Q: What sequence folds into this?
């Protein structure tokens, strides 16, 4: 990688972390304008950074689908936002399953048990969204498994993404708590970065 491209990548990544700090702080202090503005920049910045790292096209597609999901979830189109993130997870699965370092059935069993427990706990409060949430959670869990099979770095990212969306599901089921929003966005941003860098670093 040439020095100019490397420097550009570092500047974009610094912008991503800056936007993450602003996003988490804005959510924590309920500053609506900053929340929306910073959230809209997160995945586009990470996508731009992934391009400087020669990320595979499907990984870039996952980040763009995530960006669309972020925007849609800020509107009334909740199911459309969920569909966009489902597309992102389908792309992640294609990337991670194409080159798994080691398939661990213990990881599969542990995440399967976690998925079942989450659905059992959350379903009573989800009402009509019970089925789409369960299906989406299954895709999310599959990403967590496949990312762990790929390498430990991306595996941590998959776990954090799962935690982030589980926190959203808690709110949807009526189990909100103080600080949940900031925790949701911090685990989401770090998780997406680790999923991305776990692929680009291992491929290099």
A:
């Amino acid at each position: 990688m040439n020095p100019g491209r490397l420097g550009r990548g570092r500047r974009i990544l610094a912008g991503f972390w800056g936007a993450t700090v602003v996003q988490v702080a804005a959510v924590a202090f309920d500053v609506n304008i900053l929340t929306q503005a910073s959230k809209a920049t997160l995945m586009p910045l990470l996508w731009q950074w992934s391009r400087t790292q020669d990320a595979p096209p499907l990984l870039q597609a996952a980040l763009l689908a995530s960006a669309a999901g972020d925007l849609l979830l800020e509107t009334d189109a909740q199911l459309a936002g969920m569909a966009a993130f489902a597309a992102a997870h389908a792309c992640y699965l294609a990337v991670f399953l194409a080159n798994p370092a080691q398939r661990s059935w213990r990881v599969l069993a542990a995440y399967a048990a976690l998925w079942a427990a989450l659905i059992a706990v959350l379903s009573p409060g989800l009402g009509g969204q019970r089925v789409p949430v369960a299906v989406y959670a299954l895709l999310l869990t599959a990403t967590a498994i496949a990312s762990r099979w790929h390498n430990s770095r991306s595996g941590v990212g998959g776990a954090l993404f799962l935690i982030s969306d589980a926190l959203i599901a808690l709110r949807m089921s009526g189990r909100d708590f103080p600080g949940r929003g900031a925790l949701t966005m911090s685990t989401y941003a770090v998780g997406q970065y680790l999923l991305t860098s776990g692929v680009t670093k291992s491929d290099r």
Remarks:
- The CA atoms of residues 149 and 170 lie 27 Å apart.
- The chain has a mean pLDDT of 91.
- The two ends are 10 Å apart (CA to CA).
